[in-house]
Each structure stands twice: as C-alpha cells, then as structure tokens.
Amino acid sequence: MSRRTSQDAIPDTREERASYLNAGQGLGSWLLTHDHKRIALLYLISITFFFAVAGCAAALIRADLLTPEADLLSNEGYNRAFSLHGIIMVWFFLIPSIPNVFGNFLIPLMIGARDVAFPRLNLASWYIFMAGGLLTLAIVVMGGVDTGWTFYTPYSSTYSNAYVIGALAAVFISGFSSILTGLNFIVTVHKCRAPGMTWGRLPLFVWSHYATSVIFVLATPVLSITLLLVALERIFGVGIFDPALGGDPLLFQHLFWFYSHPAVYIMVLPAMGVVTELITAAAHKRVFGYWFIAGSSIAIAVIGFLVWGHHMFVAGQSPYASAVFSFLSIVVAVPSAIKVYNWTATLHKGEILLDGPFLFALAFIGLFVVGGLTGLMLAMLAIDVHVHDTYFVVAHFHYIMVGGTVSAFFGALHYWWPKITGRLHSDLWSRVSAILIFGGFNMTFFPQFLLGYEGMPRRYHVYDPSFQVLNVMSSVGASILGLGYLLPLTYLLWSLRYGKPAGPNPWGATGLEWSVASPPPKHNFETIPLVATGPYRYPLEADAPDEGEGEKEAERV
Amino acid sequence: MSERALHDPFTRLDRQREADRLGMLLFLGSEVMLFGGLFAAAMVLRLQHSHDYIAASKEMHYWLGGINTAVLLTSSALVAGALEATRAGRARLSGWLLGFAIALGLAFLAIKGTEYAIEWREGVVPRFSDAKLHGGPHELFMVLYFCATGLHALHVTGGLTLLGMMIWPKGAARAEREATTLGNVALYWHLVDLIWIFLYPTLYLAR
Amino acid sequence: MTASLRLVLVWAALMGLLALTIGASFLPLGPVLPVISYAIAAAKAGLVLWFFMELREEGGLARLAGMAGFIWLAFLLTLLAADLTTR
Question: Does the beta-carbon distance from C65 to B205 stay under 8 Å?
Fold first, then answer.
C-alpha cells in the first residue's frame, strides 16, 4: 500500500485475532448487537443497498434524457423516477451515510470510549431507519410517488394521485432515527471522552459530527411536524397550506427548508470531517488552524439554520426577507471557505502520498469549491431569478452532495476499510476508481451547469433539441460515474477474502482508532487510554522540537 | 423501573447519570422544535388574519384552558416535590405525591375531553362537526387547535405512562441512586407543562 | 429555604402569573397584548425550567441543552416573521 505499511508487524491470519467481527456468531448476534461497530456495519450494508436503488433511478433518468422526446419513460414514470431518486438518496443514503456508518464506527474509537453513550438507542435507531426505508421500498413497489423529494404543496397535499401519505410516513419515521443518532453522538462526545481527551484534542472528524448532531436534533422535528401537517391536509383537506382556504402555501416551504437547508449541512459537515482526517494523514503534517476548522464546523451548523429563505426568492417571499436571507447565505460561505483554505494550507509542504483516500479527498475539495461558488451565485437575488429551477441548481447541489459528500464517503470507506475489516485493499484500484469518479462526475454534472444557464428547467424530460448534445454528454458521464461507483464494490469485497491482513496502523496516521488492532477488539480498548497530546502530531516517530517531554507515548496507550 | 446498572461506555455511575440527563434534555429540545412547527403555523395565521384569529380565539373556552393550566402546573409541582422526597429518602411521600400528580394529569385529559365534547356540540370541529365553521381562518385556527392540543394530549398520555411506571408495579423509588430515572421522567413531565404554558396564550388568550 | 417551601412558593408564583395572564387578556391592550401574554408565558416557563427542571443546579452545558430548543425556535419564528411582516 505504501512505505508506511511496512511499519507494522502483521499477524498471519485474521482468525488468530479476536475482534468485534468474530465476537459473536450468527445473524442474531448482529441484529441484536449493541456494539457501535457492528451497528455501523448494519448501516453500511443498508445504505449501500439504498444507494444502489436510488442509483438505478438516476440511471433511468439519464437514459430517458438521452433524447429530447419522451421515449423511455412516460411523464408519470419520469416524475416517479426522479422523486424516488431524490427521496431515497437524501433520506436513506446521504443523510445517514457518513454519520451513521463512520460516525458510529469511529467516534467512540477516536475519543477513547468503549461504545456510544446509549448503545441500545443506537440499535433502535437502525431499526427505525430500516422501518422507514422498507416502507419507502414498499411504496416503490406499489407504484411510487411523484411529488419530488421536496413534497411541495399544494401538489403533494391536493393534486398528486400517488402514494404520498406512505412516502411522508417513511420520511417521518426515518427522522426519528436521525434524532436519536444525533442525541447519542452529542452525549457521547460530552460524557464518554477518555481521560485527557480535552475538546482541543478531539480529532476534527468528531467536531464536525458534533455540529452535525446539533442539526439532527434541532432541525429534524420541524420536518416531522411539517410532514404531519401535509398528511393531515391531504387526508382531511384542512388547508393550512392552501391559500383558497386562508392558509399560506409559503409556510410549507418555510418549514420544509428550515429543516432541509440545514440538512444539506448534515450531508456535507461529516464529509468535511472525513476530508480533514484524510488530508492530514496523506500530508503527514499537522492540521493548519485546528480551532478555525473546529469553529467553522460549529459556525456552519448555526448559521446554516438562518439561510433557508434562499430557496424561496421567486416564490413570493418578501423581498426584504429575501435580502436578509441572501446576505446570510453569503455569510455561511465564510466558514466553508475557511475549511478549504486550511486544507490547502495543511497540504503546503506536506510529505504528500498520492494514495486512494487522498485522491478522494482532493476530489472533494475541487468539487466542493465548484459547488460552493455556484451556491454563492445562487444566493445572489438577481442571478437566482434567472437560474431558479433550472439545471444550474441541479448541478450546484449535485456538486455538493454527490461530488462532495459521496466522494468523501468513498474516501472514508477506503481510508478506514483496513480498520473496519482488517484487510488491505488494492491501492492501485482505489486510485483508478477515484479518478473515474472524479472524471465521470464532472462529465455528468458540468454540462448541467451549461444547460441550466441556457435555460433548461429541471424536472422535465421533454426538452428543446438544442440541449441534446449536453444531455448526451451528461448521460455518458453518468455511466462512467456509475462504473466508478461499482468498481470499489468489486475490489473491496475481493479484499475481504484475498486482501493482506492489516496492521493496527496501515497509513501511519495519528488518532486513537489507529492505536487498536485492525479490526478492533469488541470493547475497543483493553484499558481506557490516557490522552496527553492533541491530534495530528506528525511526524509520528521523530520528536518534533516544540513538543513537551513524553507526550508522544500517551497516544499509543 | 429502577435505575439501570452501570453499562458499557461508562466507568463511573455519576458520569452515566449525567449522560442520561443530558440525553433527556436534548430530547426535550427536539420536542420543543416539534411543537415549534405548530407555533410557527399559528404565528403565520395570526399575522395574516389577525382579526379572524382573535375572533376565533375569543370563542375558545378560556376558563377550561385556564383550569387545565392550573391543573398541569400543580401536577408539575407535585412531581418536583416527589423528586425531592425521593432524594430525602421518603419513598412513601414520594409515592403519594406521584399518585396525586398522575391523578391531576388524568384530570387534565378529562377536562380536555370535555372541552372537545363541548366543541363538537358547538359545531367547531373541522371536517367532522363543522356547522359553525365556514372555511377560512376560523377553520384553520380550529385545525391548529386540534393538532396542537391533540399532539400535546398524546404527550400527556406518554408522560402519565412514564409516571405510572415510577410507582407501579415496584412502588416508588426508594434509594437515592434511583432518583436519576425519576428525575428524567420528571423532566419529561415538566416539558409537557412548558408546552402548555405557551399553547394557552397562543390559542385561548388572543383577544 | 427548604426545598418544599421553595416549591410551594414557585407554585404560588405560577398560579399568580396564570391569573395575571388571564386578567391581562381582558384589558384593552390591543397589539401590546401578545407581548404581555408571551412575556408572562416566558416568565412561567423560566420558573419551571429554573426550579422544577432544576437548571439552577446545573452547569452551563445542561442549561444550554435545556435552552437549545427555545433558541432555535426563536431563529425559526424571527426569520419567518421577517418574511410575513414585510411581504
């Protein structure tokens, strides 16, 4: 894998080592587990499945858009395909992806705890998530829903003939899973840190998950009650969102985006945490501006709650309120930019190793910058009027959610794979897939910026023939992207059987998670470690001149 | 329901208690936001249809709501007292106070039910008994009223169940160390109270 | 002050505030009434949080956790009102 691999003595076979993976046998030991690592794997398997389902819907959409006519899907079918794609991707893949898999697996390990604060609640959270997910699948089988992932009224409450109630219920249920996970993480970070693990010594991954959890706990309930009101309106026709009955249609959008805009930060903040870990490990260098990165996570979580109105610039919102929301949306770019600058500054003069996870991290930074800057454009009132509801918006949020979050998800998967499974994967293939994903992604979504700028509206599958070239490019790119996503599935699964066993620290990285065996023992730490140093104390072996005596040892306890 | 023993991530019981309490407080924060959506809807209705909103509110039975406020506040005070009693080792007193608190909670639900029955007869229940409603803001007000008080009544029921588990079947918590669970249940009961404190002026006292 | 006496006093204060808010709603206050109603409600909520929920005995963390929902709700209501009142 790298020059760093040789540092570790590797036992011959995995079977010799007792780990959380072989601590119990049989399906029951997994389905009733309280171990945060096993629950993380349950989530990994479930969200991979949902990712595949939603990915198939995306494939249908892109195939249909190859031609300007409606030849593959009916109008109804197209609406259902993109709604399914959005609902499953957002609520059953992106939102739980990094927090529930890697957050669950790593937060206790990183802070020196044996588990999360409420292990039973953690398992309950997975069951609730699965209940919501399976209900969504049932809806799909029954014929799907055609409202788009945003469930805008009055279409969702009055006009749609699809299974809206079921879809609302599915998202409503999955919300409780988010709330419980967020609550669990916050309490874990506050109350379960190992002795000496002060706030200034927390890995930045933990900081970003802490910020995410705040959003989980405080934003999700607003979505729950909103969906409940839509369901009531649909069942009883009561009209809270219906202007004909004295209601306010914008109220739905206010309440929906009060959750859903912070939800974007739920998706991207954990990704930022992942990237910080990946960058420091690859550069083998201390992170630049620890407190700025930590603080910017919190700032994004808080300011992210104050920007939701930028989704309603052309929806009839007061122009004065729009100006305020526009300003606040520009403000939230500042902490995001701080992170990007700090990552680049960390790379400066680093001993950079161009391994797979690092390439994913680089892809994240590049794509996040494009997504973020186009987000600034959309936050400007005048520009938004022109490109609102066009493919420009579609491209923008895919750069953040797919280019950003999914790249970071794959980066995390490759980086912590040896820790999770105890096996090394092929670095060559991980680089190939990182490059395929980066290239395929840009080819898919960059043309959509152009399409949107030229005026192609989103959510239509019959379009002006002049848009066809760009649409074909996008669809071809999507196939490359799909290949890039399928590739890791093969070589990672291959590594489970044929990969070389991993030592405790294959990347030569800092952090308590690398101080335990790969895969970790059932209770993480034989003895709870005593932490005496901050994170990212690179270089590992040599004593840096400005360090105190004997600090280095403690991290290895 | 006695207190859980020390479980895995924790090595000290006091730390675990702090964690349980913090978890409950955060959960209550999410409950506040859940009701927050309804308060937001009520605010929008009031700002857009100020006159109709006030007219609708004036038709509410503010004295029934007022009595219910007193009932719920008193019940909350009793639960706070029960917690103090448990800490002082007076399990018997604690059991009695919790019993009274539960009785008051049931009284709250009974009064609420009576109020719903009166509203049914008056014909101000949207979609089901709406003789007096003619669509528009008055009906929306009543929709919000039933959503908010109905959701609140669900929370009251949940809180009563939890309080009931504090005295049945094992009897009131005896030891000081069992006060944590009771303390968390009490927090939940106080939250039910807090929400009502804001629902009351929002729905009944807009004049 | 003993714990039980304190609870009785807080309870009495809550009852007094309840009487006050009902009384105030009958005064011809017009647009000031909501301000008064919610100020009284906030005072009542403060008493419940501070004494019944024992935030007075807690550290900053628990106080923040107890208040977080209200702070975030204020975000929602403030910016929502900003739209509604200037639309």
Answer: no
Q: What residues of C are in contact with residue A301 (Cβ under 8 Å)? A: none
Concatenating the DSSP letter of every residue in A294-335 gives: HHHHHHHHHHGGG-GGGG-TTTT--HHHHHHHHHHHHHTHHH
Whether residue C83 and residue A317 make contact (CB cut-off 8 A), yes or no, is: yes
Contact C22 B21 (CB under 8 A): no
> What is d(CA B138, CA A554) in angstroms, rounded to the nearest whole number?
67
Q: Are A66 and A475 in contact (CB under 8 A)?
A: yes
* pLDDT per position as a tens digit, A382-391: 999 999 999 9
B176 touches A: beta carbon within 8 Å: no
Which residue in this structure is represented by tokens 């909501």? Answer: C34
Domain boundaries along the sequence of chain C = 1-53, 59-87
When the candidates are 1.10.260.40, 1.20.120.80, 1.10.1740.10, 2.30.110.10, the CATH number that belongs to B13-203 is 1.20.120.80
Q: What is the pLDDT of residue B174?
A: 63
What does DSSP assign to residue A238? -
Q: Does A125 have pLDDT greater than 90?
A: yes
Lowest mean pLDDT among A11-25, A68-82, A174-188, A235-249: A11-25
Cβ neighbours, 10 Å, residue A346: 21
User: What mean pLDDT comes out for the span A13-29?
Assistant: 79
What is the enclosing helix (H) or strand (E) of A136? helix A119-142
Residues 198-217 of A with CB under 8 A from B: 217
Give the helix/strand (H/E) hosting B206: none
Note whether A296 and A339 are within 8 A (CB).
Answer: yes
Q: How far is CA A253 from CA A330, A381, B37, in A?
A: 20, 18, 12
Q: How far apart are the first and last CA of chain C?
A: 52
- ipTM of the complex as predicted: 0.95
Grouping H, G, I as helix, E, B as strand and the rest as coil, residue A501 is: strand
Which chains have at least 3 CB atom pairs separated by less than 8 Å from chain A?
B, C
C4 CB neighbours in chain B (<8 A) are 81, 84
Report which of A171, A206, A230 is spatially closest to residue A293, judged by C-alpha positions: A206
Are A190 and B37 a contacting pair at CB < 8 A? no
Tokens of C87: 């639309």
Contacts of A36 (CB under 8 A, 6+ apart): A104, A105, A107, A108, A115, A116, A119, A122
Partner residue opposite C62 with nearest CB, options B22, B70, B201? B22
The two structure tokens encoding residue A296: 């910017």
Confidence band of B14 (pLDDT split at 50, 70, 90): confident
CA-to-CA distance for A465 and A471, rounded, in angstroms?
Answer: 10
CA distance B50 to chain C (A): 10
pLDDT score for A109 = 97
The arithmetic mean of pLDDT across residues A163-172, rounded, is 96
Backbone angles phi, psi at B129, to 5 degrees: -150, 75
Tokens standing for B8? 């895995």
What confidence score (pLDDT) does residue B173 get? 65
Reported confidence tier of residue B171, pLDDT bands at 50, 70, 90 = confident
- DSSP annotation of A530: -
> Domains in chain A, ordered, with CATH?
36-540 (1.20.210.10)
**Which residue from A364, A351, A452, A375 is spatially nearest to A403, judged by alpha carbons?**
A364
Assess contact for C13 and B86: CB atoms under 8 A. Answer: no
Residues with Cβ < 8 Å from A340, sequence gap 6 or more?
A: A365, A368, A369, A372
Query: Crossing angle for the helix pair A119-142 and A164-191, nearest 10 degrees?
Result: 160
Instruction: Report yes or no: B26 at the A interface, CB cutoff 8 Å.
Output: yes
Closest residue to C79, CB basis, from A214, A217, A309: A309
Please compute the mean of the pLDDT values over residues A41-45 and round it to a whole number.
97
